[in-house]
Amino acid sequence: MTQAAEQRSAFSTLVSSVRQARREKWGDPTGYLFVAPLVIMWLVFGGYPYIRGILITLQDYRVFERQTWSLFNSYVGLRNFQELIHDKYIWQGLKAAVYLYISWFPVSLVFSLGTAVLLNRVRTKWLASTYRVLMTLAWVIPVAAAYPMWQQIYEPNFGYLNYFLRDVLKITQNPPSWGSDPLSYWVSFGIAAIWKGYGYYMLLFLIGLYNIPKELYEAAELDGAGGWRQFWHIELPGIRNIMLLFLVTNVGFLSEGTVQMMVFGQGPGNIGKTAALYAWEQAFTGSMRLGYGSAINLF
């Protein structure tokens, strides 16, 4: 009995040591249980559609034609990518997207960073909180509600903007038709797009500014540094990582298509038809070539 008890004790000790080593290696399993639902949701709603989209790029997949889930159904290999390389509308769409990005990136940077710097210098807490809420309202408004509002603002005959110019300010009796020429199209487009994402980028910069130690500001004030010098020598170096994040996230302008579809259309001469909008047209209009549209988006 004594020998059996010793063996059981040794086995229990071994199991405990193995479990302890496993815990030290992988950590507390409770954390994995909490993360598991999020991982599963991402795999179902993010990972699987992404992989499926890649597979569709290798097919001549059309929405209303009978298809199977087999990769080899209507398999065309890299033919969709070969076609898009020679498609002139792809390059026109990329040109339009790059033009939009270059034109409005500096404006978005100045407004969002400038507002964040001003809010960071508001010392009254309730006033700063009120301003933050007001500045982020546009960002939290759903797209389905925000862009139709801009459509009503820019409407040529009964829109709020032309009503204000014609009947309130009485500047002109023939207000412009917004978006009918390239200049007004890009200006109107940019204002609506920047307005929608402005609050998000302002919050990013504000978070970076809040993380700058207050001692640096106090030392700068003792040295007689004004607000402009504090911005150049304290605030701007302190948010370099946020600036990089802003640069990367603003690349979303290159795939913009929501504003065109919901507010302005493609503009005169299709100047607003970005590659993302062209991909949507190929996938969901006309012959509904979902395979080719997926290849454009992946490209």
Explain this structure.
The chain has helices at 2-26, 29-56, 79-85, 88-120, 125-140, 143-154, 160-168, 182-210, 214-222, 227-238, 240-249, 258-264, 275-284, 290-298. It folds into 2 domains: 22-86 and 275-299, no CATH class; 91-265, MetI-like (MetI-like fold), CATH 1.10.3720. The mean pLDDT is 77. By secondary structure, it is an all-alpha fold. The chain contains 14 helices and no strands.
Concise structural overview:
The chain is an all-alpha fold. The chain has helices at residues 2-26, 29-56, 79-85, 88-120, 125-140, 143-154, 160-168, 182-210, 214-222, 227-238, 240-249, 258-264, 275-284, 290-298.
Overall number of structural domains: 2
CATH structural class of the largest domain: Mainly Alpha
Number of helices: 14
The share of residues in helices is over 70%
Uncertain stretches of 5 or more adjacent residues = none
Q: What would the principal axes of the Cα set say about the shape? A: flat
State the total count of DSSP E strands. Answer: 0
Q: What class do helices, strands and sheet pairing give?
A: mainly alpha
The fraction of residues assigned to DSSP E strands is: under 5%
CATH superfamily of the largest domain: MetI-like
Largest sheet, in brief, is: none
- Do you know the CATH topology of the largest domain? MetI-like fold
| Sequence of secondary-structure elements | HHHHHHHHHHHHHH
Mean pLDDT equals 77
Radius of gyration: 28 Å
How far do the termini sit from each other?
A: 73 Å
The CATH architecture category of the largest domain equals Orthogonal Bundle
